[in-house]
Amino acid sequence: MQITKVVTAVALLITVPVGAQPHHAATDAQEIALGAALADKFAAERGLVPRDDQDRRIEAYIQSVADSLGRHTRRRLPWTIHYDPHPGIHSGFALPGGHIVIWGGILSYMTTEDELAAIVAHEIEHIDDDQVSGRIDSLVRTKGRAVTDPSQWRWQEFGASYGETKENLCDYDGAKLAVQADYAPGAYETLLRSFVVLGEVHAPGTPAPKAITDRIEQIRAEIAEYHWEGLTKTRALRLPLSG
Ligand SMILES: [Zn+2]
């Protein structure tokens, strides 16, 4: 009995309290500053400075979507969109501290703001789920990086996939975030199916990548799990000057 009590007491001592975060190499302030520095490097290296008016307006629109999602995140970070109009890159990626890059190519696949919310929420989750912090921790541990010295870091290091499990998790939790901000969760499927259909057009007979079809199955199952079947109302994508 006494032993049980001692074991329980020890277990309580080492249990992380609800709401507490695991320790990371960078504080939130350091992570935000590192992300801002990497976003500046990204803009300079990608030739995004100075920015033209249309890109600025598109970025502001994507930012408004990020703001509505950011009200429901676990971490209190300044969610900041950096738009790169490259038409051939159909994705986005998350930098440290709430900084998110969205490439122009993905916008051409969309017709609804809900699809835009889907990808922004996915990228937010890479940060809100501490995957980006974990990557920082790993580079500090294995390469001796200093979180306070942005010259030691490259933005490309945050563009690589986090692997199937974490990518799927970012859709799963991203859909919950999107629903909280009144977006239709089925937009994940719409966006993913664009990749499948265009893949079939450009390479007929080639099976769709399993990584994509798994994510389509996942959002369908999630909609059933949370009884979101009625949440089908979408908003039109309102890209500036697109009518
Ligand atoms: Zn991702």
UniProtKB/TrEMBL annotation:
<keyword id="KW-0645">Protease</keyword>
<feature type="signal peptide">
    <location>
        <begin position="1"/>
        <end position="20"/>
    </location>
</feature>
<dbReference type="GO" id="GO:0016020">
    <property type="term" value="C:membrane"/>
</dbReference>
<comment type="similarity">
    <text>Belongs to the peptidase M48 family.</text>
</comment>
<keyword id="KW-0482">Metalloprotease</keyword>
<dbReference type="InterPro" id="IPR001915">
    <property type="entry name" value="Peptidase_M48"/>
</dbReference>
<keyword id="KW-0378">Hydrolase</keyword>
<keyword id="KW-0479">Metal-binding</keyword>
<dbReference type="Pfam" id="PF01435">
    <property type="entry name" value="Peptidase_M48"/>
</dbReference>
<keyword id="KW-0732">Signal</keyword>
<feature type="domain" description="Peptidase M48">
    <location>
        <begin position="54"/>
        <end position="130"/>
    </location>
</feature>
<dbReference type="GO" id="GO:0051603">
    <property type="term" value="P:proteolysis involved in protein catabolic process"/>
</dbReference>
<keyword id="KW-0862">Zinc</keyword>
<dbReference type="GO" id="GO:0046872">
    <property type="term" value="F:metal ion binding"/>
</dbReference>
<protein>
    <submittedName>
        <fullName>Peptidase M48 Ste24p</fullName>
    </submittedName>
</protein>
<dbReference type="GO" id="GO:0004222">
    <property type="term" value="F:metalloendopeptidase activity"/>
</dbReference>
<dbReference type="InterPro" id="IPR051156">
    <property type="entry name" value="Mito/Outer_Membr_Metalloprot"/>
</dbReference>
